[in-house]
Design brief:
Bound molecules: 3,4-dihydroxyphenylalanine
Distance between the termini: 83 Å
Largest sheet: 8 strands, mixed
CATH class of the largest domain: Alpha Beta
Length: 356
């Protein structure tokens, strides 16, 4: 019995003195393991008389249980202390940007952002308008008279009739109605771009029923076609991040006079299209001087104010810049396609370190 007491005191002191989990476990094994001190003492029971066993059996079991309890208590103390130490030394700054992320930015918002960066550097701001438009903003105010054949060319989606309203709303067929909303709500000088979704009932390899445009509008007292050409030439070289040779070709739009289309020089390099140099021309956008009828529809006096406007397809420019072969893939929401053509959402387009 005296032995049991001194063994308990000795081992309890060792347990108490342990400063790490490994040392604690070594102590446990040397006391309670198969060949441990306590286990060896228990083996002695076999040699004892029945009387002795009655006393020593429970005493040894008690010793074993007490030591196990002490080890368990010490173990949880040490684990808690280790956790406390880790919590106070390992810090985590939740305001830092993530290092690993899977999502990518779709090329359409990427390209819209690139355009906004270029035009804002030239003093433009970004305007927006609704996707569901009325006939006035989408057509009439843009000098498409009722019944004019140019309306049919727009393959318009009409909304169902709303009770009590005579006229059906449309899904805007272009971003040009934002010109009208801006001129009605804002006094010149005006310098805006309007990126957004547009809709036409059309679908094949180069057309999707929903697509994206960026509109531009500049109105002031002394704006002429030289400004139009300068802005668009600077824009297109900045966008393609290389010198791009362009030509302006006469065209017709109801809302501009004169009207033009701008073509860029390009060449084919195998399956790839290289923009900038070459012997072929590709149409890239429509533009012109805002028609006096459009200014009048917005309450502006054409003898006092003039300006220019332009409109371009974002999806097509994205395909040309980043080499995507099929327009329809753009809107298929395929994560493999997005993984390949998508952009790092944390690297925002800017003119200082490069757009893309
Ligand atoms: N709205 C025209 C379209 O969707 C594009 C366009 C052409 C816009 C000439 C303009 C412009 O502002 O001046 O086909």
């Amino acid at each position: 019995m005296a032995d049991i007491k001194s063994v308990k005191t000795k081992i309890a002191a060792q347990i108490e003195a342990a400063t790490d989990l490994q040392t604690l476990d070594d102590i446990r094994v040397s006391a309670l393991g198969k060949k441990g001190e306590v286990s060896l003492m228990m083996r002695e029971l076999g040699k004892m008389s029945v009387e002795e066993k009655k006393v020593m059996g429970p005493a040894l079991n008690g010793l074993k249980n007490d030591l196990n309890a002490l080890v368990d208590a010490k173990k949880s103390d040490l684990e808690n202390a280790a956790l406390e130490a880790a919590l106070s030394s390992e810090t985590m700054d939740m305001s830092l940007p993530v290092l690993r992320h899977q999502g990518t930015l779709h090329p359409v918002p990427q390209v819209m952002e690139e355009m906004a960066v270029i035009f804002s550097d030239m003093g433009f701001s970004v305007a927006e308008g609704p996707d569901i438009e009325d006939d006035f903003h989408n057509f009439t105010a843009l000098n498409f008279p009722p019944g004019h054949p140019a309306r049919d060319m727009h393959d318009t989606f009409f909304m169902s009739a709303i009770e009590g309203e005579e006229e059906k709303k449309v899904l805007r067929t272009h971003t040009s109605p934002v010109q009208i909303r801006t001129m009605i709500n804002q006094k010149p000088p005006i310098r805006i771009i309007a990126p957004g979704r547009t809709y036409r009932c059309d679908s094949d390899q180069t057309h999707t029923p929903m697509f994206h445009q960026v509109e531009g509008l500049v109105i002031d007292k002394d704006i002429h076609m030289g400004h139009l050409k300068g802005v668009l030439m600077d824009f297109i070289s900045a966008f393609f991040e290389t010198d791009v040779d362009v030509q302006f070709r006469p065209h017709h739009f109801p809302f501009t006079e004169p009207s033009a289309e701008m073509d860029v020089r390009y060449e084919r390099d195998g399956a790839a299209i290289k923009i900038g140099q070459g012997d072929k021309w590709m149409e890239i956008l429509g533009c012109g001087m805002v028609h006096p009828n459009v200014l009048r529809a917005c309450g502006l006096d054409p003898d006092e104010y003039q300006g220019f406007a332009f409109g371009m397809g974002v999806d097509r420019l994205a395909m040309l810049k980043y080499g995507m072969p099929d327009l329809r893939d753009m809107f298929a929401a395929d994560t493999r396609w997005l993984g390949h053509y998508g952009f790092d959402p944390l690297l925002q387009a800017n003119l200082a370190t490069g757009l893309s």
